[in-house]
Amino acid sequence: MAESKLRELSTDFAVKIIKLCETIRGHYSLVNQLERSATSIGANIREANYAHGKSDFIAKLQISLKECYETEYWLELFVKSDIVSRDIAADLYNQCGTIRRMLIASINTAKQNNEK
Predict the structure, then answer these.
(1) What would the pLDDT profile of 39-62 be if each residue is shown by its tens digit?
(2) Domains of the chain, earliest start first
(3) Of 1, 42, 52, 87, which is least packed with CB atoms within 10 Å of its CB?
């Protein structure tokens, strides 16, 4: 159940980031980085579902977590550079934080189950 919620949240988050990026003019390389990291979160969560074992599953979720942190960085950079307003970014920060916390919990659970 949590896995499908995580997939759904990460997909919705990626769509919102894509729509935000469509509104930003210029800064192509930065927009590209934000889009790539945000969409990679969900892609790696999906890949984890077809992992070649627990270690591969955990590795894919850890990549998603790293992409989550990277996405937060790009959002922060856009806000501090006055490219995106803090109000617009606030909801995205919250969503990314929710996904990050769910990933951490999933990784910890998978690691505990792997030790048994």
Answers:
(1) 999 999 999 999 999 999 999 999
(2) 2-115 (1.20.1440.60)
(3) 1
